Amino acid sequence: MPETRQPSPLPSTLWVPRSGGWLPHGYHLDAHFHTQGQLVYAAAGALTTTTERGTWVAPANRVTWTPPGFDHSHRFYGRTDVRLVAIPADLCDALVAHPSVFAVSPLLREALLALTDRREVRPGAYERLRAVVIDELAETPEQSLHLPEPRDDRLRAVTDLLHADPGRIATLAQLGRAVGASERTLSRLFRTELGMSFHRWRTILRIHHALVHLTNGRSVTDTATECGWSNPSSFIEAFTEVVGQTPGRYQADLRDDTK
């Protein structure tokens, strides 16, 4: 959910460009903004970025992008190896003008790791490598795993119920009766305000929670049950369609990244 406290610029003593480090499970960074653009990559673990436009989730095969001036907060899941790369404002026009998440190719991963691990030996090496990252992102389709949040009070009442219990087994009609709105009205609001169907929104919400469970080592079967799927097969199908790999492959990649 979007933060309600007054955002502030990020203290340079807490986060600095070209930096990285391990953060504990559940670590939360309050709402803030940057005068530069920022890439945040979880080389291990996962993170969410929340703005007034909704929440984006980034497992270890995604990188988050936040343009300058956007108020946002982060939460980290699992023990997270977080890497940060600042993009100067005059270079941000090459990338999308809104928060997003991009797939991480092998080249992009190695470039991000190098930018946050290596000392700059030759003058200009950092800028040249950063230009490679920008070029890669400019050519990469967005894979946002974006969960938009509503403004309409009736719709927000429904999404609040689902946030509280993503595995809740309830039809839109049943949820509507709980909040005093018709199924037809809610269905229309999901499409006009959030740009997707109720079923799609709930699927993305459940995938967000599934990524957290898998990152924390839960089994595929237990994750499927806790997040509301009737069987592991339907969960695997939905997860693969949204994330781009099976939950088992995702967990295997997490293990490989922490070796």
UniProtKB/TrEMBL annotation:
* Coiled-coil stretches noted in the UniProt entry, renumbered to this chain: none
Superkingdom, according to UniProt? Bacteria
Record keyword DNA-binding present? yes
What the entry lists under Gene3D superfamilies is as follows: Homeodomain-like, Jelly Rolls
Name the Gene Ontology molecular function terms of this record.
DNA-binding transcription factor activity; sequence-specific DNA binding
Q: Which UniProt keywords apply?
A: DNA-binding, Repressor, Transcription, Transcription regulation
Which intervals hold domain HTH araC/xylS-type?
Answer: 156-253
Task: Report the InterPro entries cross-referenced here.
Answer: Homeodomain-like_sf, HTH_AraC, RmlC-like_jellyroll, RmlC_Cupin_sf
Pfam families xref list: HTH_18
Q: What is this protein called?
A: HTH-type transcriptional regulator RipA
Organism ancestry: Bacteria, Bacillati, Actinomycetota, Actinomycetes, Streptosporangiales
